Amino acid sequence: MTAAPLPQATILGYPRIGRRRELKRAVESFWAGRISEPELQQTAAQLRAATRARLVELGLPAAGAAVPESFSFYDQVLDATLAVGAIPSRFGAPTGSDLDTYFRLARGDAEHQPLEMTKWFDTNYHYSVPEIDGETGFAANATALVEQFREAQEQGIETRPVLVGPVTYLLLAKASDAAADGFDPIDRLDDLVGVYAALLEALAAAGVSWVQLDEPALVSDSLRVTREETLGLVERAYAVLGGAGTRPRILIAAPYGNSAAALTRLGALPVEAVHADLVRGSLPDAALADGSLAQAFAGTQLVAGVVDGRNIWRTDLRGAFAQLTQLTDAGIATVVGTSNNLQHVPHDVRDETKLEGRLRSWLAFADQKVEQVAILARGLAEGAAAIEPELAEVDRVLADRDAAPGVHSDPIRARVAASGDDDRTRVTEEDRRAAQQDLGIPHLATTTIGSFPQTPEIRKARAAFVRGEIDEAAYEGFLREEIASVIRLQEEIGLDVLVHGEAERNDMVQYFAELLDGFAVTEHGWVQSYGSRATRPSILWGDVSRPAPMTVRWSEYAQSLTDRPVKGMLTGPVTILAWSFVRDDQPLSDTAAQVALALRDEIEDLVDAGITIVQVDEPALRELLPLDRDRQAAYLDWSVGAFRLATGGARAGVQIHTHLCYSEFGEIIDAVDGLDADVTSIEAARSRMDVVQPLGDHGYSRGIGPGVYDIHSPRVPGVDEQTELIRIAAARIPGEQLWVNPDCGLKTRGYDETVASLTNLVLAAKAVRAEA
Ligand code: MET
Ligand SMILES: [Zn+2]
């Protein structure tokens, strides 16, 4: 351990999908057999080299491990699974290369289901869930880490390998199906720490001077153990790793939340640096004031995550510099960093040549964040005066943003301020049930979640329209035909409540962002969602309003074609916020209320056009739940409030539906109750209706549709299988409350499987109805 301290500027990680999604194209070509593994490896190596060169160009030093080696072919948790050899035994003996094994775990094959995917902390990024049991044969495999480090060395850049840390790894894992009853993956911590020690030894032998171990579990109250227990586990693990003879210096990172309460204890660990997220989190004021923080950090560097890695706004450099000065004044060796890995933001705002210039000047994507880190580090090294021009420039930009037209609109704000509890409250459930009798909805009513398959023809027509190859009339005509055929199909299948199919939507958030004022859409602002998939979040920059109806003509047309009710279909305020980059200059609750009012007007227009059922999807309600328990109640309050503000204007006879596509319900069941929707559809097929039990226990009194058809797979569930699931639900939920539907929308499915599955669904519902 002869290495030097970390330089004064670093980031926790950088987007790896490529500035033009080159990795996506290469990986998908490899999967399709169009390129070989060496060709894929070559593209990946080029991307890594470009990233390192770019980071140095933007101001990170080439020497001293400031540049993180944070590449991933698919997912960083999956990388750790390979590095520690935790290949689940259900995949059999590994065949082929490490990369073959890696992708087999990620994507499955003819005989094997892939690893499950779930959301990474409170982000919209999904990781591959490790499966661990008492027999998991851990074995260190540092090959990829060492190769990438060497590759960087040859380029003349000293990098810092990045790996998910052992405590977070096990807390994000699930017990495999082969595990003994009561087994928890964290039971294997000591074994796994041994493997990490071996990895560190291999890295040290290869000349690695610093390694970064990510332990975001430290900031979460949503794991299987308490935060205090997590801290205890981290102390246990790093006492061993820190004490290991041959190892690189260790940086423990705690992104995505507040580690203030743990920071003094983390500083006292036998590691050389600790990162704290100072955007989501804060500094422990008392420990800072009484010197105990500085004492704990004697000999340890604090990487201060002052540049926000979750949003796309320029950092208030003056504020960030003040935070840094607080630390250095206390005598703490401080490194400037980002709050988290920049994987959650797009590459470079300079690529957005079509964005309006003024808006663009307020923005910072990954490259600009790196520049901000470098500026702040220069300030620490040379004094505030050295960076005063840059600080003043940001002051000017932020003031400009604050004063720009559209950022603050008095009428919109007045309307939000005037909205009260009355606007968020519908008549009683009983009155609504009575008024909705007229809808003529049968027991065990069948419906879908909204979207029908987005066929290649739909995508082609949209692309042609965007490129100007077909005119608006032609495109609209095409969509109307699509709607007509979806309505016909649903009638043939015999569904009770129909949908128009959402063919007009590229994406359930962007579609609305494009039609609402206050939003902008980027051209290249892609962010990895999972594996080779990326989304392009819209930018919510100003006060939100609805210049014109957004969905009415589609719903109205669909309803004109049938006697059965057609659901109007909207995306809810919380989900619109969760899947966009949202302004950071006011509380999310204020922004949500503005979006809610726009949706409220849309619902009014839908109802005026004869629509009697409106679904407002909130699949992100759970995702945005703060990791910090102390902040959860306030979140649930405003998120539920926004939904109710959107839907609260609907008269009693209008049936409000919502859709939440996940099955972990425990934590938010009261919130779901609070939404006060007449009908809620949820995911349930894969967990075999596990959620029905808590719902039954809770005494849930409104309509509920636990999904009986898992749309995440091309498999067609048979009549018997769906009948069985409906029976399980019907045993606990009265028939007039129970709805029969798939788990989620059908946009990713093909028509053949959709028609077969829905036909079976309708037959299954009929079978159970007949049993009653
Ligand atoms: C991710 S939830 C999707 C809901 C939407 N209405 C759909 O059916 O696609
Ligand atoms: Zn869904």
TrEMBL record:
The keyword Methyltransferase applies. Catalyzes the transfer of a methyl group from 5-methyltetrahydrofolate to homocysteine resulting in methionine formation. Keywords: Amino-acid biosynthesis, Metal-binding, Methionine biosynthesis, Methyltransferase, Repeat, Transferase, Zinc. This is 5-methyltetrahydropteroyltriglutamate--homocysteine S-methyltransferase. GO terms for molecular function: 5-methyltetrahydropteroyltriglutamate-homocysteine S-methyltransferase activity; zinc ion binding. Belongs to the vitamin-B12 independent methionine synthase family. Its EC number is 2.1.1.14. SUPFAM superfamilies: UROD/MetE-like. The keyword Repeat applies. It comes from the Bacteria. L-homocysteine binds at I449, G450, S451, D617. Binds 2 Zn(2+) ions per subunit.
